[in-house]
DNA sequence: AAAAGATTCAACCGCGGTACT
DNA sequence: CAGTACCGCGGTTGAATCTTT
């Protein structure tokens, strides 16, 4: 394919940018926006190549990036995601709001890689989520679970309990499970115990879409939440509404923590009566930057609700839901859960695990799936088809 | 205080993907 | 269908800075 060199002009400047150049670039982009990088330098009066301008803007000048040392939570997220995604820095960066791929890449190469390799024998070969919850689906595996981009970052609980990216849509299987649980909680009368709590506005409403208990809530033209899952919409009270009502109707922090834990303990109890099991481990921690507090409802671990589809001896796939709760500056509490699926028969032993986001049905439906890199995607068709049928 | 070595990180470079003609 | 243009990504470089001797 023919390709002209991007920066062939000898008169173009290279090297460190001056303050004047930065100002020119900022002024131009503020006026005209980004894009058209090839012609931008000329229009902006810069003796730079377009690629250089783009890089300078995205990695340094744009206003929505956070600079400075990465937090411990961010470090952990990078380590986890790097194990799953490899050196796909732009993908990793999507999970770290306000951080650039270049910054993450540099941080990994200069610091994390060395430190991490001291701790892990073979970080390049993470295990997939086990298809047998009685054996391998413990915290080490869970740490490989990727997240979607968060608008409110959660430390140790991340990456598995993030909000879904705005491009993602409903998660029907999660919804089914949660609605099932919700209906049982409703039937038990447990909800009555918290009905006296005052309603509180949900946090993080600045995002375009907010995932609440596995259901993506889009906003309508008026900015009001819009349920995208018809099954939920027909419920008298959806799981999202129920759990968020529980979680956000708590006026005081101490009371809120205790109450939300109680809610999820109940949820756990109800879940275990059905065809679900719980395991895993993660701990609560305070949060910085956006969310003040976040915790797992289960003190003794990140308690997945793992649902084996098929039989325990011959699982077709695992379906997992990971709940967490967090609050904003106003001490408004919200609960979130994310949904993941691992396909057992697509896994070829000994291969590296990768994460693929597969569209499992209508264009609006996507679920994170765990596959082995050396598995033939074609062989997964059957499993995926069965999963779609299940949904 | 100065030289040497190590580290950091902004920037460069080439390639792949994709839209357009 | 081929050529071209553009964008974005990831590997690499090298100047600046920091640390050690």
Automatic annotation (TrEMBL):
Pfam families: Myb_DNA-binding. Residues 9-61, 62-112 form the Myb-like domain. Transmembrane segments: none annotated. It is found in: Nucleus. SMART domains: SANT. Residues 130-143, 160-174 have a biased composition (Low complexity). GO terms for cellular component: nucleus. Its main location: nucleus. Gene3D superfamilies: Homeodomain-like. Keywords: DNA-binding, Nucleus, Repeat. Residues 119-174 are annotated as: Disordered. InterPro entries: Homeodomain-like_sf (IPR009057), Myb_dom (IPR017930), Myb_TF_plants (IPR015495), SANT/Myb (IPR001005). The keyword Glycoprotein does not apply. This is Uncharacterized protein. It comes from Psophocarpus tetragonolobus (Winged bean).
């Amino acid at each position: 394919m023919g390709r002209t060199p991007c920066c062939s002009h000898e008169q173009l400047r290279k090297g460190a940018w001056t303050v004047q150049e930065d100002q020119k670039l900022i002024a131009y982009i503020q006026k005209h926006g980004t894009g058209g990088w090839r012609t931008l330098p000329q229009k902006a009066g810069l003796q730079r190549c377009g690629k250089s301008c783009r890089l300078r803007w995205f990695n340094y000048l744009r206003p929505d990036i956070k600079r400075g040392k990465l937090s411990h939570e961010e470090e952990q997220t990078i380590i986890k995601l790097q194990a799953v995604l490899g050196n796909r820095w732009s993908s990793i960066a999507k999970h770290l709001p306000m951080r650039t791929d270049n910054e993450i890449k540099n941080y990994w190469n200069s610091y994390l890689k060395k430190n991490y390799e001291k701790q892990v024998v073979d970080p390049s070969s993470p295990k997939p989520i086990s298809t047998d919850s009685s054996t391998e689906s413990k915290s080490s595996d869970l740490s490989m679970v990727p997240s979607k981009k968060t608008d409110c970052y959660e430390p140790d609980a991340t990456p598995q309990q993030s909000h879904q990216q705005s491009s993602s849509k409903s998660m029907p299987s999660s919804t089914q499970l949660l609605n099932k649980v919700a209906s049982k909680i409703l039937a038990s009368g447990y909800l009555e115990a918290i009905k006296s709590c005052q309603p509180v506005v949900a946090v993080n409403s600045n995002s375009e879409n907010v995932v609440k208990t596995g259901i993506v809530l889009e906003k309508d033209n008026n900015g009001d939440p819009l349920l995208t899952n018809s099954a939920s919409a027909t419920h008298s009270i959806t799981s999202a509404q129920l759990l968020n009502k529980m979680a956000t109707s708590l006026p005081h922090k101490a009371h809120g923590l205790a109450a939300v834990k109680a809610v999820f303990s109940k949820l756990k109890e109800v879940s275990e009566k059905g065809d679900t099991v719980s395991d895993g481990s993660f701990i609560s921690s305070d949060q910085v930057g956006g969310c003040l507090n976040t915790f797992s409802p289960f003190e003794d671990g990140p308690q997945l609700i793992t649902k084996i589809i098929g039989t325990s001896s011959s699982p077709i796939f695992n379906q997992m839901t990971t709940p967490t709760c967090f609050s904003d500056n106003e001490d408004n509490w919200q609960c979130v859960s994310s949904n993941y699926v691992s396909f057992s028969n697509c896994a070829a032993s000994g291969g590296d695990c990768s994460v693929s986001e597969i569209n499992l049905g209508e264009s609006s439906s996507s679920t994170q799936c765990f596959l082995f890199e050396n598995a033939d995607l074609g062989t997964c068709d059957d499993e995926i088809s069965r999963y779609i049928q299940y949904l």
